[in-house]
Amino acid sequence: MTPKDYEKAVLQRFRTLFPPPHFVVKHNIRLTGHKTKTPRQVDVGIFETGKSQPSLIVEAKRHKRPIDAGIAGSTIAQEAFRP
Q1: What angle do CA 50, 56, 57 make, to 5 degrees?
Q2: CA of 60: how far to CAs of 7, 25, 37, 38, in Å?
Q3: How far is CA 38 from CA 10, 27, 31, 42, in A?
Q4: Burial class of 23 by CB neighbour count within 10 A (0 to 12, 13 to 18, 19+)
Q5: Spatial separation of the C-alpha atoms in residues 33 and 21, rounded to whole Å
Q6: What is the secondary structure of 11-27 as a DSSP string?
Q7: What is the CA radius of gyration of the chain?
Q8: Which of 28, 30, 36, 57 has CA 20 to 30 A from 46's CA?
Q9: Element of type H or E holding 45
Q10: Is residue 28 helix, strand or coil?
Q11: Closest by alpha carbon to 10, among 32, 28, 31?
């Protein structure tokens, strides 16, 4: 499975977990960082229907070996996204 195939599989899984009409699951979204005002690409965004900001964001990465917790946590610590 390629990294792109993995990303698509993660997207489909979240579409199953968060189905319409209550949720909209979008792929490859851009969000502006709260602190830096820099646009950032996010693999998956889960939106409650009618809301403009995601309730959950997902970064899908496929690595051959387990990654260090510090690397995984860097996405969380990067920056808050707010309306």
Answers
A1: 115
A2: 5, 14, 23, 20
A3: 25, 19, 8, 13
A4: middle
A5: 28
A6: HHHHHHHS-TTTEEEEE
A7: 14
A8: 36
A9: strand 39-48
A10: strand
A11: 28
Reported pTM: 0.78
β-pair partners for 29: 42
Reading the block at residue 3, the tokens are 């990294």
Q: Is-contact 55 48, C-beta < 8 A? A: yes
Quote the tokens at residue 39: 């646009």
57-80 pLDDT, tens per residue?
998 888 778 777 776 666 555 555
Q: How many DSSP H helices and E strands does the chain contain?
A: 2, 3
* Structural tokens at position 5: 């195939």
Q: Which residue ranges in the chain fall short of pLDDT 70? A: 71-83
